[in-house]
Write a structure and sequence with these properties.
Elements (H helix, E strand, L loop, with lengths): L6 E5 L14 H11 L1 H7 L10 E10 L9 E10 L3 E10 L2 E14 L4 E2 L4 H8 L10
Antiparallel strand pairs: 1-3, 2-5, 3-4, 4-5, 5-6
Protein name: Thioesterase
Family: Belongs to the 4-hydroxybenzoyl-CoA thioesterase family.
Organism: Alteromonas halophila
């Protein structure tokens, strides 16, 4: 099996993203993860045409593993961890100072807003997604 290619994005931690405990607020991570999914959005809509948007978020989960602090950039690594007929999971990691600080999984659906129905993921998009596929270890 080949090593998956992560889609990476780096963000500077801004002062206002910190909370009273002097670390990054947990609410900020969801925004970073969404911003880091832009390469996935472009797989489905290369011009990011909001009038014909093809995706909808079905669920997301974020696990906080270590504190994140102001003054050092963070890097997200985004992979595809599941591909179904019309839905997929984006698995993301957030790193700071070589420490894995958080992980997240977002389930997205290829969606036609006009018909209000899911639609199959095309073979072309599926092939691109597979180059970023990372098998997740599931306990149990």
């Amino acid at each position: 099996m080949t090593t998956p290619t992560p889609m990476e994005a780096t963000f500077d931690v801004r002062f206002y993203e910190t909370d009273a405990l002097a670390h990054v607020s947990n609410t900020v991570l969801v925004g970073w993860f969404e911003s880091a999914r832009e390469p996935i959005f472009r797989m489905f809509s290369p011009t990011l045409d909001l009038q014909n948007w093809p995706l909808i978020v079905a669920s997301y989960k974020v696990d906080l593993l270590a504190q994140i602090f102001y003054g050092k950039a963070v890097t997200t690594k985004t992979y595809i961890s599941r591909i179904g007929k019309s839905s997929f999971d984006a698995y993301q990691e957030l790193w700071q100072n070589d420490t894995l600080c958080a992980t997240g999984v977002t389930t997205m659906v290829h969606f036609d807003y006009k018909s209000q129905r899911s639609v199959p993921i095309s073979d072309d998009v599926r092939a691109i997604m597979e180059s970023h596929f990372k098998e997740l270890n599931v306990d149990g």
